[in-house]
Structure formats: C-alpha cells, structure tokens
Design a protein that fits this description.
InterPro entries: B-phosphoglucomutase_hydrolase, Beta-PGM, HAD-like_sf, HAD-like_SPP, HAD-SF_hydro_IA, HAD_sf, PGP-like_dom2. The protein has helices at about 15-30, 35-40, 50-60, 65-85, 95-105, 120-125, 150-155, 170-180, 210-215, and strands at about 5, 110, 135, 165-170, 185, 200. It has about 220 residues and is of the alpha/beta class. The chain has two domains: about 5-15 and about 90-215, 3-Layer(aba) Sandwich (Rossmann fold), CATH 3.40.50; about 15-85, Orthogonal Bundle (DNA polymerase, domain 1), CATH 1.10.150. Helix 1 (about 15-30) packs across helix 4. The chain is globular, with a radius of gyration of 17 Å.
Length: about 220
C-alpha cells in the first residue's frame, strides 16, 4: 500500500525545461553551432555537468577544464535569470489539486530532482512547504537512472521504497524509480516513458480517486 509520494521537479511540477533549453541554446550559439528542441529532449532529468558534456559532443567542441567550468557557470547564470521571473502561474495544470489532496490526508511528500536549483524554484512558485523533504542535485552523487535520489527521499520521509510512488517525466527517472522498487508514474509522452507502470499526459488526467486507490486514504 502506498504511503509516500515523490515528485520530480522539471517536467512534473513546473516546465523549466524550456528555460534550460534557452540557456543551452544560447551557449551553443556562442560556441558556433545550433541546438534544437529535439536535441534538448536528451537533457531532461540529466545533471548539468552531463548536459554540458553532451552539448560539447554535439558541437564537436573540445574544452579545457577551465572552459568547461566557465561554461557551466555561464549556463546556470542565464538559467537563473529566467527562474528569477517565475511565479505561481508556472505550476503545471492540476498539480496543486494532487498536492492539496495528499496534504489534507497527511501523506508525506518528497521532491526528487537532479536540479541544484530545486529549492529556489519551489520557493518562487510557492510550493516549498508541501514537501517534507527535498532531495536534489546537491544531495546525490549518482544521477538518474541510478535510484539514489529516490531511495534517499524515501528514507528521509520514513517510508519503505516499495510503499512509494514516483512521478517522473524522464525515462531515466522512471528507470530510477523502478530500480528503487517504487511504483513509477510517467507524466508526458507515453511512447517515450514505456517503462512506467502508469502513464498520464499530465496531472489533469489524474483523479483523486486514482490516488485513493493507491493509498490507504
Ligand atoms: P540544474 P529534474 C533536471 O531536473 C532537468 O530535467 C535537467 O534538464 C537539468 O539539467 C537538471 O535538472 C539539472 O538542473 O542545472 O538546475 O542543476 O527533471 O530532475 O527535476
Ligand atoms: Mg524531470
């Protein structure tokens, strides 16, 4: 029986992928090559460092350690300029419906994200207080599909991994949830999230009755 819920951030709670994309695109253009939205798909759920490695490979750019570190900072500074302007209007549709329902029923919730900017983003959109625990890119050493982020989140909310649900929009995140022994729910493209135990296009399709069936509520 499900006793805890873990949410990914980017692509599940807010659509920050578009801001990551704009910041990576700007860097690619500065380095003399193009970067498109299709290529950006591979960046979802992936750490900042790994994204830069992929970007440089795409552009055939060789970097010194100093350049690599500089571009990591530059991309993040550009990204933070978009985050600065975020507000409650950027919460994806019907996410509050599920958060409020779980909160009202005292079901613990955790955030499990690859982002090192998770806390400021949750604060900007006014959702930080819903989460008993935030595990993000600052707390883990192994990236999704490794289950570390979700196992740590389960431990911190005091729920057995097999009693946890994970909402994820990235294939690597679904694989991480499955290897953690958790129930995986894919949010987004069902043709990409084929490993998920349940699939929904968005939270508008998820009813509180569905949540009730999973839990003891
Ligand atoms: P940052 P998630 C991930 O968030 C994004 O999907 C991914 O595109 C990004 O590179 C990663 O966070 C790191 O983000 O640069 O803010 O540390 O989907 O795991 O919530
Ligand atoms: Mg995501």
């Amino acid at each position: 029986m499900i006793k805890g819920f873990i949410f990914d951030l980017d692509g599940v709670i807010v659509d920050t992928a578009k801001y990551h994309y704009l910041a990576w695109k700007k860097l690619a253009n500065e380095l003399g090559f193009q970067f498109n939205e299709e290529q950006n798909e591979a960046f979802k759920g992936v750490s900042r460092k790994r994204c830069l490695e992929i970007l440089l490979d795409l552009g055939g750019v060789k970097a010194t350690q100093e350049q690599f570190d500089h571009w990591m900072i530059e991309k993040n500074e550009d990204y933070l300029r978009y985050i600065e302007k975020m507000d409650v209007s950027e919460i994806l549709p019907d996410v509050p419906k599920i958060l409020d329902f779980l909160k009202a029923n005292h079901i613990p919730m955790a955030l499990g994200s690859a982002s090192k900017n998770a806390i400021p983003i949750l604060r900007k959109v006014g959702l930080l207080s819903y989460f008993k625990v935030v595990v993000d890119g600052n707390n883990v050493t192994k990236a999704k599909p490794d289950p570390e982020v979700f196992l740590l989140a389960a431990k911190d909310i005091g729920v057995d991994p097999t009693d946890c649900v994970v909402f994820e929009d990235a294939l690597a995140g679904i694989q991480a949830a499955n290897s953690a022994g958790m129930t995986s729910i894919g949010i987004g493209d069902t043709t990409i999230l084929t490993d998920a135990q349940y699939n929904f296009n968005n939270f508008t399709e998820i009813s509180t009755d569905f949540i009730k069936q999973l839990t003891t509520i």
